[in-house]
Automatic annotation (TrEMBL):
Residues 16-47 are annotated as: Disordered. The gene is Ndufaf4. The lineage of its organism: Eukaryota, Metazoa, Chordata, Craniata, Vertebrata. Belongs to the NDUFAF4 family. Binds calmodulin. Interacts with NDUFAF3. This is NADH dehydrogenase [ubiquinone] 1 alpha subcomplex assembly factor 4. It holds the Pfam family UPF0240. It comes from the Eukaryota. GO terms for biological process: mitochondrial respiratory chain complex I assembly. PANTHER family: NADH DEHYDROGENASE [UBIQUINONE] 1 ALPHA SUBCOMPLEX ASSEMBLY FACTOR 4, UPF0240 PROTEIN.
């Protein structure tokens, strides 16, 4: 509804407003910067002569300038000692059992792979008294705070199967006959 109303006001007297806009005088352009006029003046012979003429005063000042540069002494590169030291990450083997082919074999300490995460969440869900947060943190080299957050906020999916009896109860309904 609102679109129709605004369209009426927008289209009201469009032709007259367009004629007024077209009949207005065009605004005068802003004055050009003097560098823009240089192209037109470049054709004059006086300017060409001024540009090509050598100034003796500037030449003497230029001759007084003396620049001396020296390269730093060259170092022999042996290739072994110039690399920056890197922090070596400790890695651990994954604990995957029969799912070993699905995931990586080595994981940095303090991290777990996707398959390991699903495995430990499922173990905790099935046996929470055996797979406590402390045991999981020790088993997978994780921090206890992170394990508690993982167990609190991530829950593995569950599959629920409904009995066939409920299906029969739904399909056992007889439609009413029209009389």
């Amino acid at each position: 509804m609102g679109g129709r109303v605004t369209r009426v006001f927008r289209n009201f007297n469009v032709e007259n407003r367009a004629r007024q806009e077209i009949s207005k005088e065009k605004p005068t352009p802003a004055p050009r910067h003097p560098t823009a006029r240089m192209d037109a003046m470049a054709e004059s012979p006086e300017l060409k002569e001024e540009v090509l003429r050598k100034d003796d005063r500037f030449l003497t000042l230029l001759k007084d300038v003396y620049v001396e540069s020296r390269d730093p002494p060259a170092r022999v590169k042996d290739g072994g000692g110039e690399h920056l030291p890197r922090k070596q990450e400790e890695k651990r083997l994954t604990k995957l059992g029969h799912l070993e082919g699905l995931d990586v074999n080595k994981v940095p300490k303090g991290k777990i792979s996707i398959v390991e995460a699903l495995t430990l969440l499922n173990n905790h869900k099935l046996q929470p008294q055996v797979w406590t947060a402390e045991k999981i943190a020790a088993e997978y080299s994780l921090e206890l705070k992170e394990v508690n957050s993982l167990l609190e906020f991530f829950i593995p999916f569950t599959v629920q199967e409904f009995r066939k009896e409920t299906k029969k109860a739904i399909t056992g309904h007889k439609p009413k006959k029209l009389t």
